Amino acid sequence: MLLLRLHRVRVLGLQQASRLRSTLRFCIRACSTDDSFQPQYPSFTYNDSSASRGWGVMGTLLGLGAVLAYHECRCRADQESPRMYTREEVSSHCSPKTGIWVTFGHEVFDVTEFVDLHPGGPAKLMLAAGGPLEPFWALYAVHNQPHVREILAQYKIGELNPNDKAPPTLETSDPYAGDPPRHPALKVNSQRPFNAEPPTELLTENYITPNPLFFTRNHLPVPNLDPDTYRLHVVGPPGGQPLSLSLDDLRQFPKHEVTVTVQCAGNRRSEMTKVKEVKGLEWRAGAISTARWAGARLCDVLAQAGHHLSETEAHVCFEGLDSDLTGTAYGASIPLARALDPEAEVLLAYEMNGQPLPRDHGFPVRVVVPGVVGARHVKWLGKVSVEPEESYSHWQRRDYKGFSPSVDWDTVDFDLAPSIQELPIQSAITEPRDGETIESGEVTVKGYAWSGGGRAVVRVDVSLDGGLTWQVAELDGEEQRPRKAWAWRLWRLQAPVPAGQKELNIICKAVDDSYNVQPDTVAPIWNLRGVLNNAWHRVHVYVTP
Amino acid sequence: MLLLRLHRVRVLGLQQASRLRSTLRFCIRACSTDDSFQPQYPSFTYNDSSASRGWGVMGTLLGLGAVLAYHECRCRADQESPRMYTREEVSSHCSPKTGIWVTFGHEVFDVTEFVDLHPGGPAKLMLAAGGPLEPFWALYAVHNQPHVREILAQYKIGELNPNDKAPPTLETSDPYAGDPPRHPALKVNSQRPFNAEPPTELLTENYITPNPLFFTRNHLPVPNLDPDTYRLHVVGPPGGQPLSLSLDDLRQFPKHEVTVTVQCAGNRRSEMTKVKEVKGLEWRAGAISTARWAGARLCDVLAQAGHHLSETEAHVCFEGLDSDLTGTAYGASIPLARALDPEAEVLLAYEMNGQPLPRDHGFPVRVVVPGVVGARHVKWLGKVSVEPEESYSHWQRRDYKGFSPSVDWDTVDFDLAPSIQELPIQSAITEPRDGETIESGEVTVKGYAWSGGGRAVVRVDVSLDGGLTWQVAELDGEEQRPRKAWAWRLWRLQAPVPAGQKELNIICKAVDDSYNVQPDTVAPIWNLRGVLNNAWHRVHVYVTP
Prior knowledge:
Two copies of one chain form a homodimer. Chain A is of the alpha+beta class and 545 residues long.
């Protein structure tokens, strides 16, 4: 198969070099980085044999691809004394109309003519248009090779003016002034508090979402916590002793690792807004990401505090160390039965993809509740207690609940609906993008599918004709464990574009192992908070004649 | 509220007496019977305080209702020597056109004029048209009162000819000749093997389905087993001892009782057939019923045989004592993890609603797997074993699986789909019936809702306008336990009929506590076996001007 593809590449002319994309893309793999966006080599430490295989073929393919794709490019590196540009000038060159400039270190490059030749696809390079390449090369370590630098050098047009300072940081009176830097590729839905999602075209490039691209849903400013003085307060049962656990104490519990997809209840809210206005951030299909989490199991910590399963219904309440101006912290709860079930694998996580948690994701400790809505994965965890009732937090009782489409803000009674815990079956298309123009011949449709409660994805159906006929997609990514399918499946369908079609209405819908399916349309599941949109995902594309 | 209703009743004339139905219906409660259809008084032994309250007000209301509704009926009992009829003559009088006759004991009654006055509604009385009343009075013990007999006596027209024998039984060469007698109200989808469902108008009259009305899904002839010689064979682990358990042995295990709704995967298949032909019996919305089951927990029996949870995935295989001409028994399996989980409450049941299991429902022992498709609730249980693979039975591997609508009998690969275990969220309308004509003013919509896997029903939305707007129905029936919501919720909506409407397109859709919802339409979930139809349920009715 690989040989066949290489053979096909040999007979392609330069004009067709962009087709290399589909061959090369699978060797572009993410590496995890910390918040500093420095280029890094892959640092995954967990067992992923397919990853090392991918890295192996990558060198060969990239070498070949580079020769074929770029051998006719003229050397355009400036031989004279370099021209100087400000960051502002660079940032204004971010479209085909203005020209597309990028920086690497102090050097400035005009890559307008290279965009269509980019082996990862033009859309990916465009994410960096007008700014530095480093944050992206940090994610896609394939770039960290001498011949990639050589190619880039051909497009050099000058350097950054050394007198041009980086943009000033936020004012210190701003409660969000202490928030960490973020990756420029993130699509920001709200700066304060920070809420952002990865662009769809990057979302399913990797089974494991790189930390800097993991969607971020903050409700409050990010606290700046000292790992040395950090303590987790665990309230004991009546008459028992409370625990005060340092990060080192937590590390003394058996370390448990699990790959978990986290999804915000508001994922795909923007489609609900099109039906009728809702209250909430305009998430597209990117409020979902997957990481390998490691930490202490909550059941082990609760057991040490002396908690055991009660006859009556009880809840484990979590409080974050983030708080508003009145000192009210973020809070949420989950049923005690889930917290104490070792098979439910609820974690007090201190690692994300082999790194300490990034600040945006709860440093130093957050809750991870596999199969459950993101709102219960409390970040910057400060306190754990067992209560007869659910958390009295606003986010447990007055938010993150589903209602009938007939309920509005005048009639809503939040006490009538259960708090969202397990999420329903979900899927979305990440490629092609809505409104994109695709070539006739063959189309590749890609996306993700996931279900809550540990239910495995058993099938994804894709339609190219608005739902009249369906084809079964191929499931990629890791196999799912029965009853513990905490992580998504990526999927793809390669299919002929029906002859003569000028447009395609592409739809995906998934099925989980309880044979739950997604509803056809958004309007009948519309709700005033715009949560729980799991209707069929639809993408409309044009076909070049 | 009750006083208000009584007051309203007082001002009604005889012409409006049929409205009494809505007032009286709620006091008509089921009693469980064995297969013999002898009238019985209620024999529920479990705690149901609302039932005794219902029985309390029933006497008062029925007395009043009888006086109001029947005081003008002329006494028509034949004073002369009785006229004689054959059963065949009686059975030919089963419609308003021919007249509506029924029998009670050896007496024959022409109830044509009474049908519209029947406090339980005309449709219920029509179920008995042309035949004996006893099987229905056995279900609705409210009839076993002297004044009801007095009312009936007014309609007597003669007696059954004592020389007219009951219809002959089936031939003994027929493998189904030994099947038990069945309740005449059941809608039969197949006689051999016997497959039948209760009529929708009876289905949600009771939270607990009376045994004779419980839907019956047999794959083979019903075995005739002697409870004294019956043995359940439990295969031990390698090197361990097998168990051979008599019915008395099983009764030595702690007796566990649980209310469980059982649903056939083919429930509502007839709606799928309308999209495109499928292979399977034409079940309407009645292949679902609820009973109070009692027996030994499977986990206790497996523990006694020496089985415990294995590191690798394993399955508990069940074999029935029903078999085809080649000796092949019905079989199915469930994952060992579910079988061994005490919280999953899997039973080896020997009681159904306080009675020994009826023969059609697995006498003397069947499996009950709460939250799981009926096909795994193996009846006439003969053998239990723990295997590394799922049951090799046809019904586990080549049936009861879901596929994409694109898969047909030429392309199907049964190995590609998981066997159905937990079922998805389901709901259906049982009143009014499709095609019925309702009065303008107010409409009452009733139905059931249930989800697999112990997921509770949190909401039922009802639309009267084909899905444009929705109203939230009131949930009746018992409260559901978190994570162990094994039994359905009944629901109802009373709403004004929109003025000027000549027809209504009524729809229901339910939501479970994982916020799973039902899909809008049938076609996109169509599959070649016609299983798993949980699309919105739709009923079209006409409104009298």
